[in-house]
Design brief:
The structure holds two protein chains of two kinds. Chain A is α/β, with parallel strands linked by helices. Helix content of chain A is 27%, strand content 26%. In chain A, the strands form two sheets. Chain A has a nine-stranded mixed sheet, sandwiched between helices. In chain A, strands 2-3 form a two-stranded antiparallel sheet. In chain A, a hairpin with a 5-residue loop joins strand 8 (153-159) and strand 9 (165-171). The N and C termini of chain A lie far apart (51 Å). Chain B is an alpha/beta fold. Classes of the chains: A alpha/beta, B alpha/beta.
Chain lengths: 256, 93
């Protein structure tokens, strides 16, 4: 099975986030970067499927030069090779632009299975995989908790709301977006890290993929959560005050 | 200008989506329609019959009996192409 895993490099969780002067993104210089967590689980799932059924795992990453360590880490963990779509300002692209770019790069590989995390830790749209699948005309399923290969395709378990699950049978090729926690992540071994240095990283640009990056959706503004405290006095008799309090807890605070 | 709310029957979030669509419709001065997709939608249609809507679209097909993302995507995309709303709202579920 030829498995393509799309991975994204995102600001690491312990980064100090400061909004930049334009108010449209965060100060890049303050940030450390790491692989998007759900993508790490998608990679692990790809590696485990390859170990069971044979084949090849290719890591696909769209990002600037700083994404190189994230790609090398995927290779050190066991991906056979990588495709790096070079993109200087990933934050300028909307979901459709990202998906167009990834789909164009994925088309050149003709994989049987395309995996990626269900959403990114930075923008969290949760749409890239689905839009990519639609652009490629492939069946897709989201929030995947389990993947089993069977005759003529795969069987997957999806996580629904309120503790419900759904099982689906799908033909291949297909696109799956993977939920964090589906498996146990591995560490790169010393041998893996050494081997990664000799593995192929194919670099392509959006111009070579013939994808225009004109966004349809523009990020207008980002801001930190605004906290404001505000005291309200409830008037009336004890009974009336209690009734007002219940109403506020029910409809404003929504805890009842 | 028109607003279309694509609803998931019997889901609480759908009621909120419908209200959001009606508020946007009022602000924009645009007619608001809703749509339900699936199979055996009689009770869903009945539940929406008293809502203030320009139109209610009912997309019924046995292939939509169980939810699959690609089946519903294809049906919703066709409906949106045919009806040409300026704004489409979905519940995030």
């Amino acid at each position: 099975m030829k498995i393509l895993v799309a991975i994204k490099q995102v600001p690491s969780r312990d980064s100090q986030l400061r909004i930049d002067a334009a108010g449209k993104w965060i100060h890049d210089s303050d940030l450390g970067y790491e692989i998007n967590e759900p993508d790490a689980y998608a990679l692990e799932e790809g590696l485990q499927l390859r170990e069971k059924h044979g084949g090849e795992v290719i890591a696909l990453c769209a990002g600037p030069a700083r994404a190189a360590p994230t790609i090398r880490e995927a290779l050190a963990k066991g991906a056979d090779r990588a495709v790096h779509v070079e993109l200087e300002h990933p934050a300028d692209l909307d979901t459709l632009g990202q998906a167009r770019l990834l789909a164009a790069a994925a088309r050149t590989e003709n994989a049987d299975l395309l995996l990626m995390g269900l959403q990114s830790d930075d923008l969290g749209y949760g749409q890239t995989g689905v839009v990519m699948a639609e652009l490629m005309g492939l069946p897709h399923a989201t929030i995947i908790m389990q993947v089993e290969k069977q005759d003529g395709g795969i069987r997957v378990k999806r996580e629904l709301e309120d503790g419900w699950f759904q099982f689906l049978e799908m033909p291949l090729p297909a696109v799956l977006t993977i939920q964090s926690g589906i498996n146990k992540l591995r560490y790169a071994t010393l041998m893996g890290i050494k081997k990664a240095k000799t593995k192929e990283i194919r670099r392509v640009t959006s111009a070579e993929l013939n994808v225009s990056a004109e966004p349809n959706v523009a990020l207008e503004k980002i801001y930190a959560p605004q906290r404001s405290k505000h005291t309200a006095m409830l008037e009336g008799s004890a009974k009336e005050q209690a009734a007002k309090l219940v109403e506020k807890l029910k409809f404003e605070v929504r805890v009842l | 200008m028109s607003v279309l709310a694509i609803l998931e029957p019997s889901h609480r979030m759908s009621a909120e989506t419908l209200v959001a669509a009606q508020q946007l419709g009022a602000e924009l001065g645009a007619p608001v329609s809703a749509a339900v997709l699936g199979s055996g939608l009689d009770s869903a249609v009945a539940a929406l019959s008293d809502k203030k809507l320009d139109r209610l679209y009912v997309v019924e097909h046995e292939g939509l009996a169980a939810y699959t993302a690609d089946g519903f995507t294809a049906a919703a995309a066709d409906l949106i192409r045919q009806t040409g709303p300026s704004l489409v709202l979905f519940p995030h579920t």
